[in-house]
Task: structure prediction
Amino acid sequence: MKEAILVEKAFRALETKLPRGWRPQLRLERSNSAPESRPDGTIDITSPDGVKARLVFEAKTRVFPRDVDALKSRLERYSSGPYLIVARFLTPSTRRRLQEENVNYVDTTGNVRLVLERPGVYLEAVGADTDPFPADEPGRSLRGPKAGRIVRALCDFPAPLSISDLATKAGVDVSYASRMVEWLAREALLTRAARGPVESVRQAEMVRRWAEDYEVLKSNDARSFLDPRGLENFIKRLRESRFRYAITGSLAAARIAQIAPSRLAMVYVEDPERAGAALNLRAAETGANVMLLAPFDPVVFERTWKDGSTTFVAPSQAAVDLLTSPGRAPAEAEAILEWMASGQRK
Result:
């Protein structure tokens, strides 16, 4: 998509989102000066009472989270703000980085954030969350078992991690690990030395990004059951069981940073039907207090930890499961992510 066409499409997306009476005016930079000495253009936003703000913008076909700092620095050379990034499509992670840096944005799918002090306006609109113009390149999502194993390894093992060591720990081939690390670096989820090891990982952002492509009740085979004698009885019988299991969800969060009493037990087992029978559970479409999950990958049983004789999934697994669960679960996930950021380990 040529830059002028991209800008025009994005401008129209912004124009349709503004409240009635607000007028945008686009001006493309056509100076003969070198491109690096000028912005791509400006957009004037005029309020119904005639107050005007001028935004300088940079237009890019693609913007990765790691590009945001450089783009902001470039915009700061042109003016003191406010700033705007114009793109064909902005991923949720890129939009979060722009918001963190207080940079406005608009893409051609209708993702818009415009925050101005004068004239005062706060506008957020959501367009596409997945790229309608995907590039033909590997490693553009965290969907699937191999990607999940990469995330788990990056969150569970301390950096630095060489690519070969990461591949071994994740149980994937080196070429796949290398492609994923390259993409995750562009997403600003990790830092890597040139041709060297992974030096640091933004664990909380990594898990949040994983949650965009993973959903606990869909990525795993989930079966709902009822233990009529309650969760305490269920946990007691689970401890005495002879099959492999790992507790996730709110019961796992409660051992790290409890927010409220747990009402639902979520447990990974290899065969939910056989485990349910062994635990004397009743299949239940409604009123369930136990959810047994056949896992998307055996990695859920790796790096588990024990509280007494009870086995729990790794904190990184519990966090992503809670982020994609209903109710108060995402708040419990955030508590785990804060705990992980503190440097503690199970």
About this structure: The chain has a mean pLDDT of 90.
